[in-house]
């Protein structure tokens, strides 16, 4: 692709860059194809905890020094952990590209994981976990995926458990890094006003630690039928999700699911927003969602309302589902949904960070860079018949699951399902 280059170093690290000459900055990401999906119950939360600990000091830099070395140059460092990968990234002016690379490389290779810092940071992450527990609109999504992916690492929350966070020791972190942060899972990706030859040069100069060449673990998924789940929580509102698994990122049909989701419940013009909020006034928040992983996604409807209105809202959801199953979406509505998806994608790519994220995920998932034009073409090619067929597939009332293969999660102070599940 124009302006994008990929080099695989002799040790197996992939180095990818996108040259954007008209900006004065860059975004640089150190990616590891390792996430909470690669954990077990006994170390659940360790990827996210490591994300924190990599910032807590190296053999030559304190945590403060790491921050100062970047921020004193007008730059920015951050990181995130997902269920399938971990990314440490920096932004800055082009003149400071090498310095940012060197700091990230130092963090990745020379972090000491000081036991005192582990003790302090475990308390910080436990506070973060409690923040999630106190945010029902966030907690319910963790509970939904735990329920849908029951018995699989994909169902474990990224942040882990209080028990594990209190138990992590220096050797646990070192052993996990040595086993999982391998050369073949390491991707260095940059987007902005930088040259590919410089990125390769810095990778050879600063990445000197002898990581393991590979980790032969494979990710498996063994789904079982999910049942409705009640989560007891003292809240003023009832929080509700109705959903199920569907096609993952690797499947072209996920574009059909994404368009269906938008038509049903993404944005103020969507069917569910108009029916439930605008026409009936019974929910402030109502939206559909598609949360995607490589081989599977979760699709569903989320809303919050009061206990007297939740099942009226549920009836309205099923009414809209029946409509979209039985009648093709009109061309105006379908084109509006396509323009929304394409427009949001294109606008997001005005950010070098978002461009870096997109390139990295494309290489990690597909071992190639999917062009924007290819993605637009796939979205544009979706037909009204495919939307209707997907609706009937997702909401097939003849299959073995409840509510046409859907499972509900209700978080409230009252057990509205009349069945408390621990």
What's a concise summary of this model?
The protein is an alpha+beta fold. The protein contains 16 helices and eleven strands.
Write the layout of secondary structure elements.
Layout: E1 4-8, E2 14-19, E3 25-32, H1 46-53, H2 63-71, E4 76-81, E5 86-93, H3 97-110, H4 115-133, H5 136-148, H6 162-167, H7 170-180, E6 186-192, H8 196-206, E7 229-232, E8 238-246, H9 254-265, H10 271-279, E9 285-292, E10 297-305, H11 310-326, H12 331-348, H13 352-366, H14 372-380, H15 384-394, H16 402-405, E11 407-412
Parallel strand pairs: 2-6, 7-11
Antiparallel strand pairs: 1-2, 3-5, 3-6, 4-5, 8-10, 8-11, 9-10
Structure characterization notes:
With 422 residues, the protein is of the alpha+beta class. It folds into two domains: 203 residues, Metalloenzyme, LuxS/M16 peptidase-like (Cytochrome Bc1 Complex, Chain A, domain 1, 2-Layer Sandwich); 184 residues, Cytochrome Bc1 Complex, Chain A, domain 1, CATH 3.30.830. The protein is 44% helix and 18% strand. The protein has 16 helices and eleven strands. The strands form two sheets. A six-stranded mixed beta sheet has the order 1-2-6-3-5-4, with helices on both faces. Strand 4 and strand 5 form a beta hairpin. The protein is globular and about 60 Å long. The C terminus is likely disordered.
């Amino acid at each position: 692709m124009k302006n994008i280059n990929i080099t695989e170093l002799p040790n197996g690290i992939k180095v990818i860059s996108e040259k954007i000459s008209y900006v004065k900055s860059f975004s640089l990401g150190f990616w590891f194809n390792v996430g909470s999906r690669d954990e077990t119950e006994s170390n659940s939360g360790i990827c996210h905890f490591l994300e924190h600990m990599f910032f807590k000091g190296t053999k030559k830099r304190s945590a403060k020094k790491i921050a100062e070395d970047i921020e004193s140059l007008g730059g920015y460092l951050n990181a995130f952990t997902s269920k399938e990968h971990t990314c440490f990234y920096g932004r800055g002016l082009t003149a400071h590209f090498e310095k940012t690379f060197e700091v990230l490389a130092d963090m990745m290779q020379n972090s000491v994981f000081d036991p005192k810092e582990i003790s302090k940071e475990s308390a910080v992450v436990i506070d973060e976990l409690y923040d999630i527990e106190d945010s029902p609109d966030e907690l319910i999504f963790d509970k939904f995926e735990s329920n849908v992916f029951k018995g699989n690492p994909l169902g474990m929350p990224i942040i882990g458990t209080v028990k594990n966070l209190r138990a992590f020791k220096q050797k646990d972190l070192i052993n996990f890094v040595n086993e999982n942060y391998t050369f073949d899972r390491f991707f260095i990706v940059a987007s902005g006003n930088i040259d590919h030859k410089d990125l390769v040069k810095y990778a050879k100069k600063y990445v000197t630690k002898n990581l393991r060449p590979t980790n032969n673990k494979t990710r498996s998924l063994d789904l079982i039928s999910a049942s409705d789940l009640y989560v007891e929580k003292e809240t003023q509102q009832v929080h509700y999700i109705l959903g199920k698994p569907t096609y993952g990122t690797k499947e072209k049909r996920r574009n059909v699911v994404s368009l269906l989701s938008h038509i049903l419940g993404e944005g103020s013009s969507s069917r569910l927003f108009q029916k439930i909020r605008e026409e009936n006034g019974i929910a402030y928040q109502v939206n559909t969602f598609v949360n995607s992983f490589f081989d599977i996604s979760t699709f569903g409807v989320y809303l919050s309302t009061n206990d007297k209105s939740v099942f009226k809202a549920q009836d309205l959801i099923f009414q809209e589902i029946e409509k979209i199953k039985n009648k093709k979406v009109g061309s105006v509505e379908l084109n509006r949904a396509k323009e929304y998806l394409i427009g949001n994608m294109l606008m997001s790519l005005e950010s070098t960070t978002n461009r870096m994220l997109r390139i990295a995920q494309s290489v990690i998932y597909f071992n190639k860079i999917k062009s924007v034009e290819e993605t637009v073409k796939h979205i544009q090619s979706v037909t009204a018949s495919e939307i209707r067929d997907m609706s009937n597939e997702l909401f097939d009332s003849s299959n073995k699951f409840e509510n046409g293969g859907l499972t509900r999660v209700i978080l409230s102070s009252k057990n509205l399902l009349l069945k408390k599940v621990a």
